[in-house]
Design a protein that fits this description.
four-stranded antiparallel β-sheet, 14 strands, 482 residues, SH3 type barrels, alpha+beta, globular, five-stranded antiparallel β-sheet, 3 domains, 19 helices
């Protein structure tokens, strides 16, 4: 729905401050720029809003003219942050008061839940060390629900004149204003943006909770910023490789529906599932607590805690199309694994945040496997074309040739050192060398390494190198007679 309604040749801004619009206004991290994004939305209300929201300004104005029309007559005009000088001045109004009122129709609890989900922040008060560092640098940065509550109680216009001037420049850069002859001018057409109005908020709103499956703030922002039609034409498409056979799509959807119902109850019950394990080559029964669903490497997985098919780990990623059925059971069932029963009794059932934390520590989706250090070498030309300036994992780090040599000394056994050092001595120092912590035995990592060869070489761990060499030898036998 296009919401630029013309009344007496004037555009009217009716957009509601839903998360997707604020993400677009933030022009970057919404976690760090939330107050500025909300403030820009208020700016647009003051310039293009309807009825009493729109200020009595000419179509060309200065910052001083806007300030005098927006704030009370007693509002300070200096460079300092304004104090609480007048309860009726708009600089005294909290962020929450701007957002949650009858005009916007926003429910505070739902809006906060959508924001936290969009930013992948759990509804907890846990404070991480990295968050404390970020908060020290940026007092508007938040990392928990309690942080958000404090932020919403801050006065939105408790900022300096310089910050407000920067807001005007941002609106100009985004196409909301034009700047000519030392004045700002209203525009005759609004820029394209994610749009939700009061009328369509309940039916056509782009749901941040649904987009959160992307699990990456910048990618979610891409989808949000480009999901709207432009002049009636869709210009953005999102293509995912999905290897689930069509014959099992219905059953996969049924399983997701069953899991939603299980997660919607309190307490969430454990389940027994019959799983066709590709690794074991047969169907096994596993009793687990379902934690969350991931789309990874062309398939959908249920991450669960309890019994794995081979009984070697407590966590496991079950591919949904290989689950034959699931049966919820009571927590009083004596068959529940001891580790799971212990966590239930402690009211410490596994949460998705645990998975995220583990995946950040090492490369690979099978986050429960043992992490190891890997040393890689890329052909320099291939590296410059396809690897450089790409992101693989937080621990994926380029190193110098000399560092690669030191890592071999430090992390390989005595029986392996001489062989690996001899190999390294025949490799060019001009090639690109990387170190990365990975999950040893993760099939997705093996597939990625296969896709890179022969332009990528695993120098160590020696066990993985030997395994790849054996695979290459078998592969060579398939082609050497041609």
């Amino acid at each position: 729905m296009f919401t630029e309604i013309r009344l007496v040749s004037e555009l009217v801004f009716q957009d509601i401050p839903h998360i997707e619009l604020l993400q677009w206004l933030a022009r970057g991290s919404l976690k760090q720029n939330l107050l500025r994004a909300i403030r820009l939305w208020v700016w647009l209300q003051s310039l293009y809003g309807e009825n009493k929201d729109r200020l009595l300004l000419s179509d060309s104005f200065t910052y001083a003219a806007w300030r005098d029309a927006f704030f009370s007559p007693t509002h300070p005009t200096g460079e300092a942050v304004p104090g609480l000088h007048d309860a009726n001045c708009l600089c005294a109004k909290t962020t929450a008061a701007w957002l949650f009122n009858t005009k916007t129709g926003l429910l505070e609890s739902e809006w906060k839940r959508s924001l936290l989900a969009h930013l992948n922040i759990s509804n907890s008060d846990q404070q991480e060390t990295s968050h404390k560092r970020s908060s020290a640098k940026n007092p508007c940065f938040f990392q928990s629900e309690s942080d958000l509550d404090k932020l919403l109680q801050r006065r939105l216009f408790e900022v300096t004149r310089r910050s407000l001037q920067a807001d005007l420049e941002t609106l100009t850069d985004m196409g909301w204003l034009e700047y000519q002859q030392q004045k700002y001018h209203r525009v005759s057409n609004f820029p394209s943006r994610p749009i939700t109005t009061t009328l369509e908020a309940t039916s056509t709103k782009l749901n941040s909770d649904e987009l959160n499956f992307l699990n990456q703030e910048d990618l979610a922002a891409v989808v949000q910023n480009h999901s709207q039609l432009i002049c009636g034409i869709r210009r953005f498409f999102f293509k995912l490789d999905y290897v689930i056979p069509r014959t099992t799509i219905d059953s996969v959807e049924d399983l997701q529906h069953e899991l939603k119902e299980i997660w919607g109850k309190t307490p969430v019950s454990p389940i027994i599932l019959n799983y066709r394990s590709a690794r074991l080559g047969n169907t096994v029964k596993c009793l687990v607590y379902p934690v969350c669903i991931y789309y990874v490497q062309r398939a959908i997985y249920l991450c669960a805690f309890g019994e794995s098919p081979d009984r070697k780990t407590q966590w496991y990623n079950f591919r949904l199309d290989r689950i034959q059925n699931i049966t919820p059971i009571e927590w009083t069932n004596s068959a529940i694994p001891q580790a799971l029963q212990h966590r239930y009794q402690k009211a410490d059932l596994p949460r998705p945040e645990e998975i995220e934390t583990q995946m950040s520590k090492a490369w690979g989706f099978d986050f429960y496997l043992q992490p190891r250090l890997m040393l890689l070498r890329f052909d320099r030309d291939y590296h410059e074309r396809y690897i450089r300036d790409t992101f693989r994992h937080d621990t994926f780090e380029v190193i110098a040739y000399q560092q690669a040599e030191r890592l071999i000394w430090q992390y390989s056994s005595q029986s392996e050192q001489q062989a690996l050092l001899k190999v390294l001595a025949t490799r060019s120092p001009e090639d690109a060398y990387y170190r990365v912590h990975y999950r040893h035995g993760d099939n997705n990592i093996s597939m990625r390494l296969r896709a890179w060869r022969p332009k990528c070489e695993v120098l160590f761990p020696y066990e993985l190198r030997q395994s790849i060499a054996a695979d290459v030898a078998k592969e060579f036998q398939l082609y050497h007679q041609d």
